[in-house]
Amino acid sequence: MRFRVVVVGAGFGGLQVARSLARHGSAGRLDMTLIDRSPYHLLRPKLPQAIGARIACAVHVPLVALLRNLPVRLLVEDVTAIDPVRRRVTWHGGALDADILVLALGGDPSVPPQFAGRPSAVLPVWSFDQACGIRRRIEFLADATRRGRCANTDVVVIGAGFVGVEVASEVQARLARIYGVRPHPTVTLLEARDRVLPRLDLWASDTAEQRLTASGVEVLRRTQAVGVTDGQVWLADGQRLGAGTIVWAGGRIQAPAVAPESGLADETGRIPVTSRLETVRYANVFALGDCAYMQERGAEACEPSAHRAGAEAVTAVRKQP
């Protein structure tokens, strides 16, 4: 009898689970299926470098190349519903049941309502298209000024967590390369809390801020953005910052909508799991990576990151048939 394993999501965690089980599972016993909405594996940690033009913008790899010669069936489908009791996943025009269901859904940034309604004014850093769009916008505005046209080339990055710090640093370095010794645009990093990288210790925060400042990034702590209109960021104290490019890198990461719609996510917006990554309420349904958090540690302690997703994939694989 073949054991059906379905992995939803081909990010770092889901891909590693599928590849590891296919390589080391009991020969002939596993029926492995990997489902993702995209035919590509996105190298999300490389997105800031792509924005800064240190690497090619095409930071994704075809999944068929990563699964070559492995007994894994790849389905490029957008999962619209998950039944955790029956361990069934559904997409438009099809459905699949599993003996073991692994949810590696990734996460979506929770953009505040005052920013979410202005998709062209505030640019999130989360997907391939978004990163390439930010890069093209910065380069287009810089080129316009070189041609003598009037354009606001300043950049504001909202949120000084891991992503915000990396994006601000990469953009500053990119602008320095474009403009050379000439005066170049200002890159401003906003953080509502009292230090950058607030999840790390004080030494790491201070070191990061010193390096950002030394490179030319203006760091504004205890500064909350409350709105964006016409190329301006409104601050809580009533002041405004003008910028041609406004990047959103703040907020909490939440599981995609299919998780709460299927009753899997709790009030944190993510899926609570045990130390073995099994969902708290459903047997043989596992969740890992950005969409999940270990309940015993708490959501705040489970920082969404590719490194954590990869490490959790190893734990998930131990529950193989």
Mind explaining what this structure looks like?
The protein is of the alpha/beta class. It has 2 domains: 3-109 and 253-317, FAD/NAD(P)-binding domain, CATH 3.50.50; 113-248, FAD/NAD(P)-binding domain, CATH 3.50.50.60. 29% of the residues lie in helices and 26% in strands. The protein has 9 helices and 22 strands. The chain has helices at 12-24, 47-51, 63-66, 113-116, 128-146, 162-179, 202-215, 258-261, 306-317; strands at residues 3-8, 30-36, 40-42, 60-62, 72-76, 79-83, 88-91, 94-97, 100-103, 108-109, 123-124, 155-158, 187-191, 218-221, 225-229, 232-235, 240-242, 245-248, 253-254, 271-273, 285-287, 292-294. A 5-stranded parallel β-sheet has the order 5-2-1-9-21, with helices on one face. A 5-stranded parallel β-sheet has the order 11-18-12-13-14, with helices on one face. The protein has a 3-stranded antiparallel β-sheet with strand order 6-7-8. Helix 1 runs parallel beside helix 9. The longest helix is centred in the middle third of the chain and has 19 residues, at 128-146. It is elongated. The mean pLDDT is 88.
In short:
This protein has 321 residues and is an alpha/beta fold.
Keywords, please?
single chain, 321 residues, alpha/beta, elongated, FAD/NAD(P)-binding domain, five-stranded parallel β-sheet, 2 domains
Task: Present the secondary structure layout.
Layout: E1 3-8, H1 12-24, E2 30-36, E3 40-42, H2 47-51, E4 60-62, H3 63-66, E5 72-76, E6 79-83, E7 88-91, E8 94-97, E9 100-103, E10 108-109, H4 113-116, E11 123-124, H5 128-146, E12 155-158, H6 162-179, E13 187-191, H7 202-215, E14 218-221, E15 225-229, E16 232-235, E17 240-242, E18 245-248, E19 253-254, H8 258-261, E20 271-273, E21 285-287, E22 292-294, H9 306-317
Helix pairs in contact: 1-9
